[in-house]
Amino acid sequence: MAVAMTTPRFQVTYRITPDDARPVEAHARDICIEETVEIPEDCIPEGHWKAGIIGNVESITERPGNPPAYDCVISYRTDITNNEIPNLLNVLFGNISIRRGIKITAIQFSAEQLAAFGGPRIGIEGIRKALNVHGRPLATTAIKPLGLSAKELAVMCGGYAAGGLDAIKDDHGLIDQHFHPFEERVSRIQEAITTANVRTGKATHYYPMVAGRFDQVERQVAFAKAQGCFGVLVAPFLIGPDTGFHLARKYGLAVMTHPTFSGTHFHDPRHGMTPAILLGTLFRLFGADISVFPNAGGRFTFSLAECQDLAHACRDPFGSLRGTFPSPAGGMTIEKVGAMLETFGNDTALLIGGALLRHSPDPEVSARAFVTALEKAVKERKP
Amino acid sequence: MAVAMTTPRFQVTYRITPDDARPVEAHARDICIEETVEIPEDCIPEGHWKAGIIGNVESITERPGNPPAYDCVISYRTDITNNEIPNLLNVLFGNISIRRGIKITAIQFSAEQLAAFGGPRIGIEGIRKALNVHGRPLATTAIKPLGLSAKELAVMCGGYAAGGLDAIKDDHGLIDQHFHPFEERVSRIQEAITTANVRTGKATHYYPMVAGRFDQVERQVAFAKAQGCFGVLVAPFLIGPDTGFHLARKYGLAVMTHPTFSGTHFHDPRHGMTPAILLGTLFRLFGADISVFPNAGGRFTFSLAECQDLAHACRDPFGSLRGTFPSPAGGMTIEKVGAMLETFGNDTALLIGGALLRHSPDPEVSARAFVTALEKAVKERKP
C-alpha cells in the first residue's frame, strides 16, 4: 500500500527480537498498528492507509547474533504525536511496552519536532557561561542523607560551595519530608550557597528536588526561582514526563534530570529503550540541561558502552538543539576522576555524592579535593 | 542493630534474584540503603540507624527454583514517603529500578497509609449504583481508530450507548490531535451518549482520555466534568503517577486507568513490579475505579495467573478501601465473554474494542450482541 508522504513523518528504529515463530515483518506490522489505530487490520478504514495514519515499515535489517534480531525502522506522521511529550511517548512506546522483544535504539526526529520541543533552554554553553567554568568537566555533588535537618544540609552546602563545587543538587530522595520541609530546605541551602559565593566570587549552582503532588509541584518550582536557585532537579518518572520540563521552562530555570523509577527500560537488550534514547535523546529533546545517569563501575548496571552512547546522545549534533551535560554518577569517587575524564571528556558534569562524605567530615575539604583532582587530571591529560 | 519500631513502618516484599556471587543478605542491605539514605554504609549517622530511617530487613525466605531467588521483606518508616505518590514510588522502587534482579511482589501498607491515599472514591459498588447494573460484569468498549473525526466518533458512541454498553472510553491514543480535538470530541461524544441515555433510560458512562501537557491537563479534566462525563481515562505513566488521580478526585470524576508505557515492569520475573502490584494494588491505592489491563490470550504477554492475581489485587479486602473493577482488554472478542466470566467473575469490566468494529458496521448491533452474549453467559453460569 502506497503511503502518502506529503504529511511530515519521523522515524523510529525498533530492535525486534521475535518472541514467537512469526516472521519479523508480522511483528513490525503489529507495532505500526498498535501504536496508532490499534484495531484489527481488516477494520482499518481505507482512507487511513492512504493518509499514512498507520505506522509504515521503512526498512528491516537483520542483526548479527543469536537469537535473531532485526532493526526495523518505522515512520509515523508527526501530527499524531501532537508535539506533546505524553502523546509522543504514547506513540513511540505505549502499548507495545507491554509486548516482549521490542527495544527503541534510535529515533530520527523532523526539524519541525526539534523546534517544537526545543531541547535545553540553557545547555552546556549556557551553564558554563553562568558558572564561568571552561576547559574542564563540572564538579558536582548530591547532598545527603535523607533525615538530616535542613540546617545541617545547609551547612554542608555552604562548605561544598566554599570548596569550589560548580553545582549541588538535592539527593533525589529529599522531597518534602518533615525532617527537611521543601521550603525551609531550599531557602536555607540557597542562602548558604549564596553566602559562600559572595565570599569566593564563584557562582555555585543549586538544584533542589521538585517532586510534589500535582497541586504542589508548580509552587515548589516557583519557590525555587524566588529563592534564586539556578535550576531544579526533576525525575520525569515520578512527576510525569512533561511536568518538570514544562515548569522549569515557564520559570526560567535549568533542568537536571534524574532517572529514578525508569530503570526497567534498561535491563534487557530486548525490551524498553536504551539509556542513550531515554536519558539522552529524549530528555535532551524535552529540555534537560544536565542528565544524571548511573555510571559503569558504580553501584548500577550500565555498561561502559551504554554510558558513552548516552554521552554522545547528550552532546552530538542534534539539529540546532543545545547540548546537555551528561552527568555520570552512582558510586563515583575522587580516585575515579581521571578515568571519568578519559571516558567522557570535558563537557561532562561529574557527580560524586557519598564518597565526598567519606573523604572528610568537612565538606569544604572534600569539595576542594574533588576540584583539585579534577584540575590535575585535566592538566595531565593535555599534552 | 536494633531499629526503633515506635515510628510506623510498612513492609515491601522484594523478590531478589542475585546477579552476582554476593549473599542475598548483601543485596537486601543494598536496597535498604539505596532507597533511603543512599550513602556508603560507613557514612550513615548513628542516629539514623537508631531512628529507623534506613530500610530494615524483616525476613528472607528462599524460593524453590533455579536460579536461586529470595523473598525479602523490607520495612520502611512511612513518614519518609510523605504519603505522596511520587515520594512513595521513589522509596518503593526508585534507584533500585536501575539494579538488576529486584521485583516487588507484595506490599503491606499501614492503616494510616490506606487512609491517606484513600483508594477509589467511587469503586465497584458506586459504579454499579450509578449504572444500576448488578449481577453481571460491565460491558465496556474503547472507541477507535485515531484519525476519525469527532463527529464520526460521536455517532459510534451514540450507537454503542443505544446498544446498551455500560461504559465507553476513548482509545488511549485519542489525545488532542487535530483530527478530533479534545474539547470538540468530548462535547460531541458526551452529547451523543446523553441523547441515547434519554432514549434508553440507561446511564452509559463516558471516560475521555486526558493526557495533555502539565498546563493543559487540569483544563481537560474540568472540561470533562462540565460536559457531564462520569469519569476520565488516565495513563499514569504518560502524565505522571499522581496527576490523573489528583485531578479526578478534585473534580469528582471516576478514574479508569490505562497501562500504556508501563510495560517494561512486566517482562521478566526478576525485574520490576508484578502486574498485580502496579496495576492492581498501587493503582487501587491511588484511586483507580476501573483498571484496564491486557488480558491473557489477546495481543499481549500477561499469563492467566498474572491476570487473576491482578483481579484479586483489585477486589480482595484491602483495609477499608473500595474495590476496583479489573478490566481485561487487548484483543478480546464477543466469543470470549463466557471464558472471561469464568476467569474473572461478575465484578469485572469486560472491555472489547476492535472486535466490536469487526462484528458489525452498526455499533448498536455490535453493542447489543456483546451485552446479549454477556447476559446469556451469566445466566448459563448460574445453576
Structure summarized in a few sentences:
2 copies of one chain form a homodimer. The first copy, chain A, has 383 residues and is α/β, with parallel strands linked by helices.
Structural commentary:
The first copy, chain A, has about 375 residues and is an alpha/beta fold. Helices cover about 40% and strands about 20% of the residues of chain A. Chain A is built from 15 helices and 13 strands. Chain A has helices spanning about 25-35, 45-50, 85-95, 110-115, 125-130, 150-160, 180-200, 215-225, 235-240, 245-250, 275-285, 305-315, 335-345, 355-360, 365-380, and strands at about 10-15, 55-65, 70-75, 100-110, 140-145, 165-170, 205, 230-235, 255, 270-275, 290-295, 325-330, 350. In chain A, the strands form three sheets. Chain A has a five-stranded mixed β-sheet with strand order 2-3-1-4-10. In chain A, helix 8 packs parallel to helix 10. The termini of chain A are far apart. Chains A and B meet through helix 3, helix 8, helix 9, helix 10 and helix 14 of A and helix 3, helix 8, helix 9, helix 10 and helix 14 of B.
